[in-house]
Amino acid sequence: MSKFRNSSLLQPGENVTDDALLTEMNILASERRINQISRRNFLATTSLAAGAAGTLALTGCSTGSNTGLLTPPTTTTAPTVSDILNFALNLEYLEATFYLTLTTGTGLPAALQGTSPGAVTGSLAQVTFVDPGVQDLANQLAADELAHVTFLRATMQSLSLTPVDMPALNLAALGAITTDAQFLAIARQLEATGVSAYEGAIGGLVSNVAALNYAAVIHDTEGQHEGALRQYCIANGVTSGAIDSADVPPTATTIFNTNGTTGLNTARSTSQVLMIAYANTAAGITSGGFYPNGVNGNIKST
After folding, report:
1. Which residues is 69 bridged to in the sheet?
2. Which of 96, 115, 122, 208 fits as disulfide partner to 145, beta carbons 3.0 to 4.6 Å?
3. pTM for this one?
4. Which domains does the chain have, with CATH numbers?
5. d(CA 139, CA 98)
6. Which DSSP symbol is given to 246?
7. pLDDT, tens digit, for every residue of 182-216?
8. Has residue 279 got a pLDDT over 70?
9. Which among 155, 193, 171 is positioned nearest to 94, based on CA atoms?
């Protein structure tokens, strides 16, 4: 008997395996939950603050009031699957380079940067971690994000898509990182941004089940990353500032980054993600913050 015995929920007329059908059911359930959330929320002013802990901070934010889903800006052209995966790859380039630099003193291997990668600036160096647990956490984050870059590039090539080269990165956009606390604070913010970016992209990948499945499994891993970092921040009394109005920083009474009403995390549009990455909430911004020359690909503006 063929293992492709189930009718696909996302591709009428196609048959899929049991595992693929389960993935499609989970995807559709997630879509329904997201679409039920109110879209009346807005993105407040975001700013980068390189303070003692070197954290992303929100001007005038109200912590502990995650609204579930930020209202995405109006767009005239829907991004393609290639556009969305390349946008995700830009974020993975940053995370992998960031964590590898802090754990090993060197960044992403040249073979994974593309043919014409951008320069990596900033004076970050390998951190001498005090807590062995934080060291282990940092090492696994570095290994996972390195694997994500490898996986995304190979996945795109298997789908006959062209992965973008690594853009120029400014790893010191938030200042020096030399302590366990500084690492935990900023790593939590990076992972919170990445998780919400994958959530915001799900609707644009429904036309390609393979791409949707790949994004879903990376999203699950990023969610585990953020959860672990939140627990370490709470256990060590580390303040990890809100990245925007929908973010809920970890505290003893806000363990999860979820809306208190719906119990859901925030999904961010590409524009809202770039407002955080570029440290600028104005429309039409194409560079800044961690990306001094902007991200690569067709999705590059706030």
Report:
1. 267
2. 96
3. 0.76
4. 37-278 (1.20.1260.10)
5. 12
6. T
7. 999 999 999 999 999 999 988 888 888 888 888 88
8. yes
9. 171
